[in-house]
Design goal:
Helices cover about 20% and strands about 35% of the residues. It has three helices and nine strands; from the N terminus they run H-H-H-E-E-E-E-E-E-E-E-E. Helix 2 packs across helix 3.
Length: about 160
Amino acid sequence: MAGDRYPVHSMLITQATAIERMVALVTDFIPRKPLKTLRATYLWRSTLNITDLPFGVTDWSEVKQTEHSGENGVAYWKTRNFGDIRVRMVEYSPGYLADHWCAKGHILLCLEGELHTELDDGRCFVLTPGSSYQVADNAELHRSSTKKGAKLFVVD
């Protein structure tokens, strides 16, 4: 039997199912707490380790803007630093082309406009509102440009 060949695997599945059932039972006695929320709280495991960061809200309209010239056009950054984590709202002017190839890792979400990202191996990607990319530090050199302009949310 397949279950006999992989007893540890079967046991882990059984334990996970039992935990889900326990969470479901507890949920029935907690008003206004959906099961989905409790599952996320108790069963979710993260590989990103964010420490020493209390809950906070950023009103981006109050964050000072800095200007960064590209080879063409300009980038406007609003930046907040939380320990080793930098969070930015970035706006690229129409016609922007970065003046460098970037080796920094990012998680980037396009909010408005259209962002073109070229990798040093020749591949090109286009982000539109709601699409994102992620790249590790020193993984693949990349360079940004935009014809129309773009607004981005960036974590690095």
